């Protein structure tokens, strides 16, 4: 067919429906984004209350096959960002990091070993690599609980 293309009323309707659907999805995305922003703000505000208190914290990172090697760095980054909201030091927040897949692996435990600085923590967590394996969350959480039992008296856990 040569010459200018004429639009049919049905084609215009489809275009209008597509635009309305796109606007609807965009509006939902904005609403979800705003809700996420509110949730993150509450999370940050809660963590900030503990910034200068005595805390014993075990970060438990899932490195099972369901997470995958491509997504594991996001867990490490989340852990780093969360720790930056606290005061990682021997006097305030002492941390341990456990990863799990088929088996638990303790990468470091500054809860029972007297603490570390933020710089030390950030340096150590960068060295954690992905191993894969099955998902044994229950065992990892039980192990984390055992580590916390060896923590300081009076510290938040």
From TrEMBL:
Cleavable signal peptide: 1-26
Gene3D superfamilies per record: von Willebrand factor, type A domain
Presence of keyword Glycosyltransferase: no
Record key words, sorted: Signal
A GO CC term assigned to this protein in UniProt: protein-containing complex
Stored InterPro entries: ECM_Assembly_Org, VWF_A, vWFA_dom_sf
Domain VWFA: 56-157
Source organism, top-level taxon: Eukaryota
Protein's recorded name: VWFA domain-containing protein
Lineage: Eukaryota, Metazoa, Ecdysozoa, Arthropoda, Chelicerata
């Amino acid at each position: 067919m040569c010459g200018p293309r004429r639009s049919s009323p049905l084609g215009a309707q489809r275009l209008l429906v597509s635009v309305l659907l796109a606007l609807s999805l965009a509006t939902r995305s904005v609403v979800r984004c705003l809700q996420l922003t509110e949730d993150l703000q509450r999370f940050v505000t809660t963590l900030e209350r503990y910034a200068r208190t005595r805390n014993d914290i075990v970060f438990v990172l899932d490195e099972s096959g369901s997470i995958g090697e491509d997504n594991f760095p996001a867990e490490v980054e989340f852990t780093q960002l969360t720790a930056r909201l606290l005061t990682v030091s021997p006097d305030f927040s002492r941390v341990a990091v456990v990863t799990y897949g088929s088996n638990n692996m303790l990468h470091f435990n500054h809860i029972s070993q007297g603490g570390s600085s933020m710089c030390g923590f950030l340096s150590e967590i960068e060295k954690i690599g992905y191993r894969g394996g099955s998902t044994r969350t229950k065992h990892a959480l039980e192990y984390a609980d055992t580590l916390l039992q060896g923590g300081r008296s009076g510290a938040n856990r």
